Amino acid sequence: MAAGDRVATVPEGMSDHWRTAMFALTNLFLSMHRTFTGHDGESPTAVLIYCTVSVGNIQKLMRERSVPREFTATAILPREWVVPMSRSAIAAATGLARETVRRHVAQMIETGLLIEDPRGGVTVVPGAIQTRALEPLLETLVTEFSRTADALLRAGVIEVQTS
Fold this sequence. Notes:
The protein has a single domain (6-161), classed as Orthogonal Bundle (Arc Repressor Mutant, subunit A). Helices cover 57% and strands 9% of the residues. It contains 8 helices and 4 strands, in the order E-H-H-H-H-H-H-E-E-H-H-E. It has helices spanning 11-16, 18-40, 44-57, 59-62, 87-94, 98-110, 128-131, 135-155, and strands spanning 6-9, 114-116, 122-124, 158-161. A two-stranded antiparallel sheet has the order 1-4. It has a two-stranded antiparallel sheet with strand order 2-3. The termini are close together.
């Protein structure tokens, strides 16, 4: 893909290939779930909370039209780019009960997966990609995503549109 190209859905391709698309996407979800839960042996609930906090923490940065190059890899983000997540926001985002979130977050703070932020809420530990050795996990996830995208392209469910 060239700069300016984008991936788009093909409505008629979707309606002609629902089963293929659903299989590919569900298989991707299951592969991602297996990869995440297998990495540290965390419970599916803890993984869901950790992923939710991870995504919530960088939402401000990812809303930028262009993410600064120095923050696209594994550099530790300056705290002004990190948005702490409240337990209520975690519960709303995950659909988990607030008490379940509260218990799991407390345990995750105790084990060093999350930290209380002085501004309120919780964040992942700075440098978690390196200290938790997440690079191989991320590579596995991108590989699975690439296989899924390839299957959806071949089925005509998505296409690359050149600009």
